Every structure is written in C-alpha cells, then in structure tokens.
Amino acid sequence: MYNLLMTILLVVSVLIIFAVMMQPAKTDNALSSLTGGADDLFAQSKPRGFEAFMQKVTLVLGIIFFAVAIAMVYVSSH
What total number of domains does the chain contain? Predict the structure, then answer.
C-alpha cells in the first residue's frame, strides 16, 4: 500500500510541475510594487478559458497531493 501511495505521489508531483509551468505568466515587474501598480487598476480580470482551467487543475492536484501525503503518514504509522 505504501509503495502504491508513493507512486501516486510521484505522479501527482510531476503533474503539478507541468500544470504550474503551463500557466500563463503574469508580468508584474518590480516597478509596479514601488509605484503601487495604479496603472493596473482595471487590468485585474477574472481568468477565463485555458487560464481558469489550469488554475482548477492545479488546485485539484494540490489537494490530491496533500491527501496522498497524509494517507502515506497514516499508513506508515500503522
């Protein structure tokens, strides 16, 4: 059981890396943190399409990762 959970954890870890790498970059530079980013006041919009999908995939994979990690701790202690 522990080996199966370890394999699932490794697969989910690789999938999380790919999901994070595939997300579009948000170009916030250091100047906006100094000036307060007032020029981007209305630039914040709700993610749509591929970006929203990738955020959901990353969230689900993160939840699976922590659930499997907790299950591994439980299995290894018993």
Answer: 1
Region for residue 22 given its phi and psi (left: phi exceeds 0; alpha: psi -120 to 50; beta: otherwise): alpha
The closest of 55, 57, 62 to 26, measured between CA atoms, is 55
The answer to whether residue 43 sits within a structural domain is no
Q: Considering the chain, what is the average pLDDT of its residues?
A: 84
Task: List the structure tokens of 24.
Answer: 């579009």
Neighbours of 63 (CB within 10 A): 11
What is the extent of the structural domain holding 62?
1-22+48-77
Q: Is residue 8 part of a domain?
A: yes
Q: What is the Cα–Cα distance from 36 to 21, expressed in whole angstroms?
A: 27
Residue 55: inside a domain:
yes
**Is pLDDT at 27 greater than 90 in this prediction?**
no
What proportions of the chain, in percent to the nearest 5, are helix, strand and coil?
75, 0, 25
